[in-house]
Amino acid sequence: MATPYNHKAIEQKWRKHWEEHPVNVNDGKKPKYYCLDMFPYPSGSGLHVGHWRGYVISDVWSRYKLLNGYYIVHPMGWDAFGLPAENYAIKMGTHPRISTEENIKNIKRQINEIAAIYDWDMEVNTTDPNFYKWTQWIFVKMFKKGLAYEKQMPINWCPSCKTGLANEEVVNGKCERCGADVTKKNLRQWMLKITAYADRLLEDLNKLDWPEKVKKMQAEWIGKSHGAEVDFKVDGSGETITVYTTRPDTLHGATFMVLAPEHELAAGLATEETKDAVEDYIYQASLKSSVDRMQDKEKTGVFTGSYAINPINGAKVPIWLSDYVLADYGTGAIMCVPAHDDRDFEFAKKFDIPIIQVIAKDGKEIENMEEAYTDASGIMINSGDWNGRESAELKEEAPEIIEKMGVGKKTTNYKLRDWVFSRQRYWGEPIPIVHCPDCGAVPVPEEELPLELPEVERYEPTGTGESPLADIEEWVNCKCPVCGKPAKRETNTMPQWAGSSWYFLRYIDNKNDKELVSREKADQYLPVDMYIGGVEHAVLHLLYSRFYTKFLYDIGVVDFDEPFHKLFNQGMITGKNGIKMSKSKGNVVSPDDLVRDYGCDSLRMYELFVGPPELDAEWDERGIDGVYRFLTKFYKLVMDQKDAQVKADKELLKEHHKLIYDITTRLDNFSLNTVVSGFMEHTNKLTAMAKKNGVDKETLETAVVLLAPFAPHIAEELWEALGHEDSVFAQTWPVYDEEAMKEDEIEIAVQINGKARGKITIGAEEAKDSVLAKAKEALADKISGNIVKEIYVPGRIVNIVMK
RNA sequence: GCCGCAGUGGCGGAACUGGCAGACGCGCAGGACUUAAAAUCCUGUUCGAGUUAAAUCGAGUACCGGUUCGAUUCCGGUCUGCGGCACCA
Hints:
By secondary structure, this protein is an alpha/beta fold. The mean pLDDT is 91. Helix 18 packs across helix 19 (624-641), helix 20 (650-668) runs antiparallel to helix 21 and helix 20 (650-668) packs parallel to helix 22 (697-707). Helix content is 35%, strand content 18%. Strands 10, 11, 12, 13, 14, 15 and 16 form a seven-stranded mixed beta sheet that branches. It contains 25 helices and 29 strands. The chain binds one RNA strand through helix 7, strand 11, strand 15, helix 10 and strand 25.
């Protein structure tokens, strides 16, 4: 009788062994495979079983690649700057550096419990000056290329986090981090010109092996649209108002025009009579938060008293102001075609403005229009020269026609805005800029980087729009790097995304103090082959990283312009009733107890077994018993049979190759939950076979190698028990033989009129006639009346159709 | 409002290109071992009818309809849940 499965002893033994004899070694000959996890921020609550799942998935995949002959680049690090870390420190009444260090220690311990093959020599921490030196260096490079610039403008402001936010960080009008309503604040900001990369960010999505959902989200976020700018002269003044439209085909139907209240000409268009109303409207609009403005479904507006001339037909159209027009998209002014746009229609109805239909619907002009006809299909009417033309065609051609007429031009617009890059918070990379009264904004010389974050007594956000760094006079006051005159340092810091936008490049050369990454190493180990993490970063981190990578490609740091070849989004593990795990909800499940009670191998397999890896799953730990029982069974099977001296017969050989086939194909499809059930099924089968005639050693060895990526400790233990001195991870992934899997005889179902009525056993290659004869014989008592049709799908099914 | 994803036993889920729906696991029920319990092993487990037990029959993959010899799978419509976008002209 063999000793029972003792997970504690086995896991301890091999953990120690692997520390001394790593299994993933770079011999310089093997091809590389870079498998990356989204690195965690060192939260105070530690890892929960949801984080674990992601890391288990990436480790299983890494070990699978390892067994396929790759050297695995599989690093881990800490996204330790930023709001979450700082907010946590404020709550705990400690310094973020201290709490961050403590949290990292705890999380690192937890991560080591996963027994993943992370290479800790590659570890990075975004708050390490040797790391953020390069975060600052990238900023300086961007500044020198004109991609980082200062601007005074109303930006998204989180009153709770007391800092400005990027557009991407505002979700449904709320702060992505804390959920507070976002307001506007007029601040001097550092901006990154991500819009300069809009086209490439959009086009290159085609190159990526990413979930369609994420690609679509990015494409929509970039929001490219084609159209035209059209110039409308203001009647009786020299002014011109340019509008942007995607529907220039409807130009004849423009019966009014609307400007955003923030438009620079807005106030000036008022006449004596309208002056008070216009000024009041502009003032009221300025008080509204973006949330209010978004949620006000009822349209408001004010007539300026001025008119514009429609350049296509000379019609005089009233100019209105309304806050449904956005100041920062297009030109901040639109032409309004109420007949063919829902919003314009609503506005025209409310303020009693004429509606002129210019595209026939079903060949007709609509009487008593009740809603806008927004399809760009139909024949043009009421459109002068354009009458009779097809609107869809005209939509494409109109921009050029307008351009030829000299009243506008063809143009393209994006929803993507430049990236608000400065934060009025302490815990971030200082922006390496000096403000000189004579020279203006001057970058800190590259050789002086890193510009270290100074110690402060009070690091809490001020809420004034100034960073806490502004209070440190000895730090703020400095000399201009260009002229040497007294100057002041920039006191804003960078957002959390700054470090995470490029950290994956640094892992492979994390000790290099001359370069961000050596070109030689970059060429050898980059880019990332597989990136695994949650979907919540679809338009934040993943978009920013692509932008950074393209920039670094442009300045020759790396030779690729997309960072992550393949992306996998694992589903979230939630608490009961699908509620997100969080400390405040008190439903966080820590992996620690489960590892202690069931072992790492069990938890690893259970994390996969809970459901398809890409879907969310409610955590219910009762099921872990099943996985533990499976490992116990598997252990017993191998230990009982290892010295049985059984020779593989045909049945065993068949089972052997089916096992390889099932596990490999399911793994290749990333169907990790069914890999686990596949192991259970085959182990049950092998256990039954063991009771009869025993199981051959080769089959046991194969099973152990296949199990290794999932349950590495037990696999290594059993590999040793099978008499091997090398590691199970030094083996190669088994290959199945289709011939060996073939069945001689198969059982198939026989249906009558599509309903299963019996079964017959046939030869694998048996001819149709013979099979049908057998089927009819087997179901003779159920066949009556006329047989209309007999169907045989080879090797699958017989269906007899009767009247 | 628009777009996307999903809906299968008591529960998590499986079913490859249309071919025996419910694999595997949890839970539950019964049994074996035990003085007893735990652990382990065996048997059963979609619902309903039927029977000592079976055989057998009927219904069944959110709902309604269609295509097909045959539909969880394909098509059309409806409902529900989740996610994304949301005055972007």
